[in-house]
């Protein structure tokens, strides 16, 4: 999905595999959310075993966006870019694609949700003044915002390429965007009687948690930030974070603190660690994957942005119209996952193979 604007002359297989895994995570997340979302919001209670399965799959699904952002940082911050050339070749096409899908998604919502058409609402969404009716589109204005600063960040990182120059700002952003939101889950008035806390130092210019994934991903992918840590310790860190996040989420679920879902968002410290550790694992697998960039892998990796744009409308239609009444909930999730992925790929095939110019405009296929 991300990083497509600037590719190496020779594709790096590990990044393609990471990108494919990331889109599978995103589709899994939304397929599970179709049923687990009512549990998180407090509208439904389920037994422990299905809760564990759905919560685990949903948490793993959340690792997709951190992977995409880390991939983007690795590809886009690796070399200096001419500002206007980058804006013309990467930012402007991304905005055009986003605007097209803002319109398509709005009319999709009008038709499927039977909403009344409002030109004002449509215009607000196109001007990024209101949220899209389809939840996955939150990613688009966020990534556009990051892309706007890429030419300046890449120049800085080429001149000052060592992590030591960025330790203080990165730690500050991590504290304000990851640590505090995670602690706030358990330090709020519903749980331990403490009101929501927030860092008063403004770190928004640092890109928040998304900029953090973007920049740290660059240092992992290009500077080997985690290369000295043994693989066993990285795997243990992932397992530990998954365990801690699950325990915390189950505590919230059991005590019915439904207004707090931060442990399932990208500001969650365990998800932050798991996402970046997983990216490091893919980087290390690079030496084994360098001769495994088969055409099907390359084409699937190129189409991940398009799959991202398509899969959620497809999922919503499938969940509404596929005859799944009476089926086991886990089977429903699998059906939605397969249908969302498969139908999206089928729709994209002619744009990959024949209508390539249209594919660039509609789906940002590079």
From TrEMBL:
One GO biological process term is: enterobacterial common antigen biosynthetic process
Q: Where is the Acyltransferase domain?
A: 13-348
Q: What keywords are annotated for this sequence in UniProt?
A: Acyltransferase, Cell membrane, Membrane, Transferase, Transmembrane, Transmembrane helix
Does this entry carry the keyword Membrane? yes
Main localization of the protein described in the UniProt heading: membrane
The answer to whether the entry has keyword Cell membrane is: yes
- Gene Ontology MF terms: O-acetyltransferase activity
GO annotation, cellular component aspect? plasma membrane
Top-rank taxon: Bacteria
- Annotated membrane topology: Multi-pass membrane protein
- Pfam family of the protein (one): Acyl_transf_3
Q: Where in the cell is it found?
A: Cell membrane
Under InterPro entries, the record lists: Acyl_transf_3_dom
Segments traversing the membrane: 17-36, 56-78, 90-113, 133-153, 165-187, 199-220, 232-252, 264-282, 331-353
* Family per similarity comment: Belongs to the acyltransferase 3 family.
Q: What protein name applies here?
A: Acyltransferase
Species of origin:
Mediterraneibacter catenae
